[in-house]
Amino acid sequence: MPPKYQVTKLANGARIATAEMPHMESVSLGIWAEVGSRDESARLNGIAHFAEHMLFKGTARRTARKISLDIEGVGGSINAFTSEDHTCYYAKATADRLPRLADVLMDMYAASAFPAKEVRREREVIVEEIAMYRENPGQHVEDLLSQRCIESRASTARSLAPNSRSLPSPATISAPSPPEPTAEEYCRRSTAWHHACV
Q1: Of the four, 6, 57, 71, 160, which is 20 to 30 A from 28 by CA?
Q2: Nearest 5°: CA angle at 45, between 41 and 46?
Q3: Does the annotation count 184 as an active-site position?
Q4: What would the pLDDT profile of 71-117 be if each residue is shown by its tens digit?
């Protein structure tokens, strides 16, 4: 029998998608944030991936080590990934551990500390990770193809509506453009509940 799916929207804008599978003895829980690399400006290129890493570095209630121990210490696993259009934080464990998984993931998502010393350290980790992906020909070609598809879609949109960027809207003529968010503002916005599906 296929799983029964249900989507519920909360007052804070978060959506909860559930798939009931009573024959399973395990649970998977994830937070999908509608923030990915395509939402980044040139100046903040890579910030979604960076924010993903930083959410594992501690909260007001947990150190980075405690985040790991609270999940892996009961036999579970916790991880994350960033794509072009979303970032996902997820954990898996036995079904009786659902409250713990939810508590850890929600704490990470809503109350990450972004400690300054970890910001500096994580930059180096991500530089090494990027180098590792580029050394993998299959991954590198996939990244190049994905980038080309995104550029092609943008080019097609401009050719279908060639004047869409050439004339400003009346609202932008008299009002200055809003400033680009700082990296910290971007990270905070990317963890807003109205951007999330749990």
Answers
A1: 57
A2: 140
A3: no
A4: 999 999 999 998 888 899 999 999 999 999 999 999 999 899 888 88
**What is the rounded CA–CA span in Å between residue 64 and residue 58?**
4
Q: Could you read off the pLDDT of 15-43 as tens digits, one per residue?
A: 889 988 888 899 999 999 888 888 777 77
Q: Say if residues 18 and 6 touch (Cβ distance below 8 Å).
A: yes
Please calculate the CA angle 100-101-103 and round it to the nearest 5 degrees.
65
Within the chain, where are the H helices?
Answer: 47-54, 64-72, 98-111, 116-134, 137-160, 170-174, 183-190
Q: What letter would DSSP give residue 63?
A: B
Q: Out of 52, 129, 151, 184, which one is annotated catalytic?
A: 52
CB-CB contact of 101 with 91 (8 Å): yes
Nearest to 53 by CA among 153, 129, 158: 129
